[in-house]
Amino acid sequence: MSGNTFGHLFRFTTFGESHGAALGCVVDGVPPRIPLAEDDIQVHLDRRRPGGSRYTSQRREPDRVKIVAGVFEGRTTGAPIGLIITNEDARAKDYDAIKDKFRPGHADYTYLQKYGVRDHRGGGRASARETAMRVAAGAVARKVLGGGVAIRGALIQMGAHRIDRGRWDWGEVENNPFWCPDAETAKEWETFLDGVRKAGSSTGAVIEVVAAGVPAGLGAPVFDKLDADIAKALMSIPAVKGVEIGAGFAAAERSGPENSDEMRIGPDGKATFLSNNAGGVLGGISTGQDIVARFVVKPTSSVSIPQKTIDTHGQEVEIATKGRHDPCVGIRAVAVGEAMVACVLADHLLRHKAQCGG
């Protein structure tokens, strides 16, 4: 299986399956002498791990990360950093009854078509369990970026229910189980998602990630555009079906003058922008404004409501997926989106320094 490595200078490779022995990650390209401890990584993994509330999968995984290489006396050495998380609450037997059936909306069918073999235990490599190591790699990327860059994510839509952007408060994100910046909407989501969960169904979501403090000049103008790499990074997250940068699809409804971000000279003598419809990227290169990206996550495909499908014997059958699943996978995708943006920015920062110095 190819395609398990992401990035150029800052790059990471993940391995492991949903119900295998462990998940692992090798992070390469990290400069030496950067302070790094397991706690620096764990704080982000705790935001992604399952079982955090009744609104996420009840699989009880502590997701304790262990650094097994690349760090000596609390600092990176420049060598590859090895990270590992042991799976402690896997229940492969939950999937025995459907091992010969293709779950609608899952990669079961396509994996078998491509490889001729598939791991039916929770989806194997296709499971969103894989994203734990992305979050771990993202925590290392944040250390490369330094404290001047702040990357924050928030859930801004669940099903058809959107936040009121006029009530946006980053301080509220940590105060509710949805990472929602609107306290009133978060309360409404509790009732909505309880209904979805009790019905054995699921719902989709939209997540917004904002990176502040990104210096101007990161990216490249043709195939390696900063926003293109961010889009690929976010699209690679399981269940993501769409990405937009800045104004995104809303730009189609605007005129040129409305969408353009006019410029002035600020009090400090530096360029400033009157708006940020570009999402912090022009011509594939960062402007120094906030990087703003949004992505949509489809409803979780594993539901207990019976659905029509086929099996490996070519028979038309019915399937209802049991086990422990997220009624809205978008909740835990917030931390994953932050991590992937961090990895892209760390990679482009190192690439910029390699080509342009500084």
Topology:
Blueprint: E1 5-7, E2 11-16, E3 22-28, H1 38-48, E4 65-69, E5 71-72, E6 75-76, E7 81-86, H2 108-115, H3 131-145, E8 150-158, E9 161-162, H4 183-198, E10 205-212, H5 226-235, E11 240-245, H6 256-259, E12 263-265, E13 271-273, E14 281-282, E15 285-286, E16 291-297, E17 307-310, E18 316-319, H7 330-356
Antiparallel strand pairs: 1-2, 2-3, 3-7, 4-7, 5-6, 8-9, 8-10, 10-16, 11-16, 12-13, 14-15, 17-18
Helix pairs in contact: 1-3, 1-7, 3-7, 5-7
Give a verbal description of the structure.
The chain is α+β, with helices and mostly antiparallel strands and 358 residues long. The protein is built from seven helices and 18 strands. The strands form six sheets. Strands 1-2-3-7-4 form a five-stranded antiparallel sheet. α1 (38-48) packs across α7 and α5 (226-235) packs antiparallel against α7. The two termini are 38 Å apart.
